[in-house]
Amino acid sequence: MTTLRQEREQLYFDLWEGKRPKRVPIEIMANLTYAIEYMGYSLKRELYSAEKCVEAAEKMAELIDSDNLPTIPNNESAVFRYTKAQFMVPGNDGFFQHPNISPLTQEEYPEFSKNPLDFIVKKIQPRVFGILEDDPEFGHVRINIARQVVANQFAGQVPRLMEKYQRSGAVSVGLLIWAPFDFLADYIRSFSNVLLDIRKKPEWVLEACEAILEYELKQVEMLPKPFPGTVPTILLPLHMAPFMKPSDFEKFYWPTFQRLIEGIQERGYQANMYCEENWTPHLEALNDLPGRCQIAFETSDPKKIAAVVSKKHIFANGYPTELLKTGTKEQCIDKAKELLDILAPGENYIFAITKPFLRKNDTNMDNVQALVEFVKEYGKY
């Protein structure tokens, strides 16, 4: 007898094999911060309690009957605090955000490009982890121990919840990495500085992107063998492209990104990317990506996606998260129908919200539940 979980997983297997699934898969993501506040808990306290985090994640699974597990019961907030991490900083209410930091100076580009791993370990990490300044000799050991302690607290919870609530585990995630240019912008040069760098030191930026590409592909090579019986993927949040003019995108962003996707696939993984903001000006470039990729879109025009992007790829997202907070049930369902009418006929669509719920007031749970039930029926082929 086929279980509900097997039925849900088959939806994804069919998509990745280029077959028509029985219906459009449904993915709703609720961040652990949302789940904790939904329970009435404080981020400044319960975000550091593995027991409360698991309780909150389980509550989301009870409330949201999507095909995925809506909330992952795992977080490293305690690690960020313990290691004095500057790349994830809590606000007064306990919510963590990524500040616009630049631990790499412009003059250090050539040194970084010669050996990114060595530079990251010896110079960048000490600049972003306060614990390495406090304890240069054993700081890295302490970071690894902290991460392992936190991981042990959540060990086994994801598969337990997937089985209990019959959610799909068809797609596994081996690693989260960035397009080489995004790596520069998000973590070592900052959004603002990297856009100045491409004007003042364009060759240094190109050399750095090449070095980052090699560094990231080595990370993929070091991964253990993919979990059998799943579609093994690498997650890629794509950030900077919408803020670049086409000529800069073609010169600085696309070449190393395309080769990164090729390298990921050559190493036995599939690319699962999220095109943040509006990628409409760059949609045609996605047709040059090899193989079958999953491409999620935030605010790109769905009609242009359907018309321009090759159906060899899997499309995801597109449903505006904000509408679930501000709209009536009828408005929420009408928008879902509109998107399904545009994107579902390609038989390569995963219905998903554009952004996960982050804070307690980000959505109306009644609307979410009505949306899921509607898509289950209307999304049948």
Automatic annotation (TrEMBL):
<dbReference type="Pfam" id="PF01208">
    <property type="entry name" value="URO-D"/>
</dbReference>
<dbReference type="InterPro" id="IPR038071">
    <property type="entry name" value="UROD/MetE-like_sf"/>
</dbReference>
<protein>
    <recommendedName>
        <fullName>Uroporphyrinogen decarboxylase (URO-D) domain-containing protein</fullName>
    </recommendedName>
</protein>
<feature type="domain" description="Uroporphyrinogen decarboxylase (URO-D)">
    <location>
        <begin position="169"/>
        <end position="378"/>
    </location>
</feature>
<dbReference type="GO" id="GO:0004853">
    <property type="term" value="F:uroporphyrinogen decarboxylase activity"/>
</dbReference>
<dbReference type="InterPro" id="IPR000257">
    <property type="entry name" value="Uroporphyrinogen_deCOase"/>
</dbReference>
<dbReference type="GO" id="GO:0006779">
    <property type="term" value="P:porphyrin-containing compound biosynthetic process"/>
</dbReference>
